[in-house]
Amino acid sequence: MTPGALTVRADAVVLDIEGTTGSARHVHDVLFPYARARLGPWFAARRGTREHAELLEAVREFAGDPALDEAAAVAALTAWSDADVKAPPLKAVQARIWAAGYADATLTGHVYPDVPGALERWRRAGIARYVYSSGAEPAQRAWFRHSGRGDLTVLLDGYFDLASAGGKKEPDSYRAITAAIGVPAKRTVFLSDVTAELDAAAAAGWHTVGVARAPERPPTGTAHPWITTLDATALTGPHHHEAGTA
Ligand SMILES: CSCCC(=O)C(=O)COP(=O)(O)O
Ligand SMILES: [Mg+2]
């Protein structure tokens, strides 16, 4: 444990993916382009299926244009991908496209080296471990199952996404997660690299810890403590087993 580590009393930890447990560069330089290049073929291969009709309808709804045809829907999804719009239909299609890449080992989930050890420490301390990402739940599971550091899903208790919890900058999303996991807000800690997400979690009564991964640096003037490695976060849970914190 890093000397002077930040100590938080928590029974549950909720982890962001991009920029916190995994590399934002990997998401933007590998995952997004992989799906973007396959959006058109993905829709074309599913013409006439229920899956095609449902996704087209979801794109129309999010775009606010009930007349969108397949080509226009693919154009909208492409634009959302380029602008990193956290659009649920985009996240749903990306997850399905990425699944093939994980299955044939073209894709590997990027996980920082301190993540498996932190998850294991928190597991031993009796702290429940959840993921909350804008990426759809199947994409989150695939990322951790096919991580470059082995199958980490065995160390995770659940996953929340835009569909199950809502947007990450909305306090109500954190309240929804509190209700779902049955852990009081004041015993839950959220780790993220995005100040607006941390602000929303804090507004819902959660503890918050900002994570700045090199070469990013902790921002100044936020209401949150910041760390640069999970090794600097000592969570004391119900079992108080975490090294250096009992
Ligand atoms: C493995 S989930 C893919 C990441 C993603 O699609 C995304 O939008 C990242 O969102 P996050 O909330 O983890 O920053
Ligand atoms: Mg993030």
TrEMBL record:
<dbReference type="GO" id="GO:0043874">
    <property type="term" value="F:acireductone synthase activity"/>
</dbReference>
<comment type="subunit">
    <text>Monomer.</text>
</comment>
<keyword id="KW-0486">Methionine biosynthesis</keyword>
<dbReference type="GO" id="GO:0043716">
    <property type="term" value="F:2-hydroxy-3-keto-5-methylthiopentenyl-1-phosphate phosphatase activity"/>
</dbReference>
<dbReference type="GO" id="GO:0019509">
    <property type="term" value="P:L-methionine salvage from methylthioadenosine"/>
</dbReference>
<keyword id="KW-0028">Amino-acid biosynthesis</keyword>
<keyword id="KW-0460">Magnesium</keyword>
<dbReference type="InterPro" id="IPR036412">
    <property type="entry name" value="HAD-like_sf"/>
</dbReference>
<comment type="pathway">
    <text>Amino-acid biosynthesis; L-methionine biosynthesis via salvage pathway; L-methionine from S-methyl-5-thio-alpha-D-ribose 1-phosphate: step 4/6.</text>
</comment>
<keyword id="KW-0479">Metal-binding</keyword>
<dbReference type="GO" id="GO:0000287">
    <property type="term" value="F:magnesium ion binding"/>
</dbReference>
<dbReference type="Pfam" id="PF00702">
    <property type="entry name" value="Hydrolase"/>
</dbReference>
<dbReference type="InterPro" id="IPR006439">
    <property type="entry name" value="HAD-SF_hydro_IA"/>
</dbReference>
<comment type="function">
    <text>Bifunctional enzyme that catalyzes the enolization of 2,3-diketo-5-methylthiopentyl-1-phosphate (DK-MTP-1-P) into the intermediate 2-hydroxy-3-keto-5-methylthiopentenyl-1-phosphate (HK-MTPenyl-1-P), which is then dephosphorylated to form the acireductone 1,2-dihydroxy-3-keto-5-methylthiopentene (DHK-MTPene).</text>
</comment>
<keyword id="KW-0378">Hydrolase</keyword>
<comment type="pathway">
    <text>Amino-acid biosynthesis; L-methionine biosynthesis via salvage pathway; L-methionine from S-methyl-5-thio-alpha-D-ribose 1-phosphate: step 3/6.</text>
</comment>
<comment type="similarity">
    <text>Belongs to the HAD-like hydrolase superfamily. MasA/MtnC family.</text>
</comment>
<dbReference type="InterPro" id="IPR023943">
    <property type="entry name" value="Enolase-ppase_E1"/>
</dbReference>
<protein>
    <recommendedName>
        <fullName>Enolase-phosphatase E1</fullName>
        <ecNumber>3.1.3.77</ecNumber>
    </recommendedName>
</protein>
<dbReference type="InterPro" id="IPR023214">
    <property type="entry name" value="HAD_sf"/>
</dbReference>
<dbReference type="GO" id="GO:0043715">
    <property type="term" value="F:2,3-diketo-5-methylthiopentyl-1-phosphate enolase activity"/>
</dbReference>
